[in-house]
Design brief:
The protein has about 250 residues and is an alpha+beta fold. Helices cover about 30% and strands about 25% of the residues. The chain is built from seven helices and nine strands, in the order ββαααββββααβββαα. It has helices at about 35, 40-65, 70-75, 140-160, 165-170, 230-235, 240-245, and strands spanning about 20, 25-30, 75-90, 95-100, 110-120, 125, 180-185, 195-200, 215-220. Strands 1-2-3-4-5-6 form a six-stranded mixed β-sheet. It has a three-stranded antiparallel β-sheet with strand order 7-8-9, with helices on both faces. Mean pLDDT is about 90; it is low at about 1-5.
Amino acid sequence: MLLCLCLPAQAADPKPDTTIKNASIEASVYLDDRIKADSALAADCLAEGKTWIDKNAAEAAADRKQEPDLFKDRGGYSFERKYSERSVVDGRYVSVRDDYMNTHGAHPNSDVNTILWDTTAKKRISIRPFFTETADNGPTLTAMRKAVIAALNAEKKRRDAGETATAEWYKEMKPTLLKIGAVTLAPSTEAGKSSGLTFHYPPYAVGPYAEGQYVIFVPWETLKPYLTPEGAKIFAGARPKGDADEQQ
């Protein structure tokens, strides 16, 4: 009698939404299914991803032309970019996490960016509409930076990395929208609301490579004095524990 051993089927690797592969480079861009469900958002992310691939392909081809022996020994560059939905707030504001990586070196060179998408206006926006003012070095961003650093120091202590909780590591983090860090609206225990802001820092941004990435949460209550009526409308509740576990 023959016995049949049935093993669970392996999930197929996701197929890239756009890709290129040649002697100089292999690069792919992936959109998660929730982003694909919004055609305008998907088109926006894919257009950005294609531009990113074209830029890296041109640079890889130029490098290969200048140093052909280097590419002969190790092959082409390898890049990957993934767009994933972080949260949907008020049925309107979609936070997207955008991770990209060069996997060719001894240490993968990774980075993270974020997108805030307004499904009503069908365009990218910033967090400005939620705060009464967002001037460089103004009260809102100064308070925001202070809260981020306090949370970073606490997280570094939890990771036994307190020796890098220094001004030197934080000097590139400025109280400006472009320098404070990639930001998303955190989900909430209250449906349709956001519990605050999460700031995403890749390796090397606020600590040595070995410390990895940091996802730092600032609860909405900390920023309550600076909220506009629209901000007061979308923020409520607490950060779900599962979200905190998943992001670290």
